[in-house]
Amino acid sequence: LSDRLGGILDKLKRRGALSEADVGEAMREVRRALIEADVALDVVRSFTDKVRARAVGVEVVKSVTPGQLVVKIVHDELVAMLGSDADPIDLNAPAPVPILMVGLQGSGKTTTTAKIAKRLTEKGKRRVLMASLDTRRPAAMEQLATLGTQIDVTTLPIVAGQSAVQIARRAIEAARFGNYDVVMLDTAGRVTLDEALMAEVAEVKAATNPHEVLLVADSLTGQDAVNTAKAFDGRVGLTGIVLTRADGDGRGGAALSMRAVTGKPIKLMGTGEKMDALEDFDPKRVAGRILGMGDVVALVEKAVENIDIEKAKATAERMRKGAFDLEDLRDQLGQMQKLGGMAGLMGMMPGVAKVKNQIAAANIDDKVFRRQVAIINSMTRHERRNPKVLDASRKRRVASGSGTKVEEINRLLKMHRQMADMMKAMGASGKRGPMAGLAS
Ligand code: GDP
Ligand code: MG
After folding, report:
1. Ligand 1: which atom is nearest the Cα of residue 134?
2. Quick one: average pLDDT of 310-323?
């Protein structure tokens, strides 16, 4: 999205307050990002309406561009919509607390059941009993039993010929009898939603009165996830959602849609096949993913805190014109020092791997920054503006003045030349240097 963000940044002109047109322009980009991320259309619409309403008329403070401001508002609104507070599994009920796991086949119900059981027995030191209600596939019951052995959690002994409801009742009884704190009920799923599946799940729910009904949904299913969530919530009633395959390359749209459509919190996310690959849902991470902008928002926040925008803007203008001299380099070094080093800054920018490697090769760290600034400070103004005049004798003078060596000065000059060339090239190709982007 650096392109997309760049687009937003470029299109918006600096103004006093965000106008309808500014925001409308940016919203088109955001809309595209959301649709690409597989967010359901009506959710996209209601989301962009909400952001538009919030953004229009907001004063653009001096140190932030309108584009940055809109991106920030969009991001914050996404996080809010995804649910900004951690929402753990609620076990505040008389033991044994029943937890019902529902969802389509292959969504990760059985795996997630075991992951949650592992988490509860480990962290909360709770006693957990797991039971598989998947009567159609004996292999599914075996699967849960195997996972149980692996994570050292008891599973209800398998008795052939019982219905899902009978197994569920037996599980609750066994949990009561065995003094378990939690009983996890892993249900059967179908490849597609159908009435028989819904009826069975509803029946199990009525028989067990679960304290949590968690929908396990595959984040890679995109739009389908919305229909699944809507159907289960409508028919069975959900208390929360667990998003699986958050480790995959899905873009998080499913999370936003499910949350928006059901209003139910996303409590956890599965991040792999292993038993400990379960994390608290992280709305910031998912929001970033939906916008596809890596850490751009973090970068914007950090930059706004630290950078002297006006100065950067002037430098950026000079860079574009190809007039990047050693005074500009000194300003840049100072700002990059503030930003936690060039590598840190570059690391946050999407799509600058090449530049990043060059910088890393130049081995710039904090100490080096300081020495380089000292070198530049030891030059005359004329030398800083016209580095070409630095002959051998001038270099020796600068070296002794700054307590460095001539080789260091040569290295600095070489780096400056490379940066100036790079910036000229960026300017020529219509792209802009990192600092230029921030200051536009
Ligand atoms: P069920 O049919 O809903 O019970 O689904 P399973 O629990 O049997 O999971 C189906 C497959 O998805 C298994 O191979 C799991 O290992 C895998 N799986 C489940 N959750 C995750 C996850 O969060 N990430 C990844 N990468 N794989 C997962
Ligand atoms: Mg299963």
Report:
1. 4
2. 69
